[in-house]
Design a protein that fits this description.
201 residues, mainly alpha
């Protein structure tokens, strides 16, 4: 179940589109400003295309969260496999993980986080590109931040739903008490009328 059932899906989808647009702009505008790490590949048109595609692939959450995770994770792994230097193109992975964590269980969230962290690192190892500690640290930090954000959102949603359920039960109790009071009044009225009829008879 989605974490924010109170708002229409198209509002959440619209927010996701805005995030995708902003992420794409950041990837495109910052690519030329990021120098290549030692042994890494400078971000070129292909790297920008991967980053933009990953940003828009986050919208696949509304089709299938697993498909979104697979596409974004695959693009992020490809980005590392061809030895591109770190940059905003890698931000889509934690964004996708956050969205996945909102609609799937905690166990699946941690499994997905392990895959989203391990696959790019393994790809960089297989490509035999020297590691930059900063890139790996940034990846782990972004993934951890996505997990914490998803957990916080889930807890907030749980509290909100609990409050809604308490309010619903209180309202139902008030209605039941009102109905019981009406039934008592009706009973007393009928008893009084029957008593009067009996006296007159």
């Amino acid at each position: 179940m989605d974490w924010d059932d109170r708002s229409p899906w198209w509002e959440r989808f619209g927010t996701a589109v805005v995030v995708a647009v902003l992420s794409s702009l950041v990837v495109v505008t910052s690519a030329s400003q990021i120098p290549a790490d030692t042994g890494a590949r400078a971000i070129d048109e292909a790297g920008i295309a991967i980053g933009v595609a990953a940003a828009w692939a986050c919208l696949l959450r509304w089709v299938n969260p697993w498909l979104m995770l697979a596409v974004v994770g695959g693009l992020s792994t490809l980005y590392w496999a061809v030895s591109y230097t770190g940059g905003p193109a890698l931000v889509s992975a934690p964004v996708a993980l956050f969205g996945f964590g909102l609609v799937r269980s905690r166990r699946l969230l941690y499994l997905a986080a392990a895959l989203m962290t391990g696959a790019p690192i393994l790809a960089r190892v297989l490509s035999r590109t020297p590691f930059e500690v900063g890139d790996v640290t940034a990846l782990v930090a972004f993934i951890a931040a996505a997990i914490l954000a998803a957990e916080a959102a889930r807890q907030a949603t749980g509290r909100r739903r609990a409050q809604t359920e308490v309010a619903r039960r209180r309202h139902a109790q008030v209605i039941a008490e009102q109905q019981l009071g009406l039934a008592r009044d009706l009973h007393d009225g009928l008893a009084h009328a029957l008593t009067g009829i009996a006296v007159q008879a």
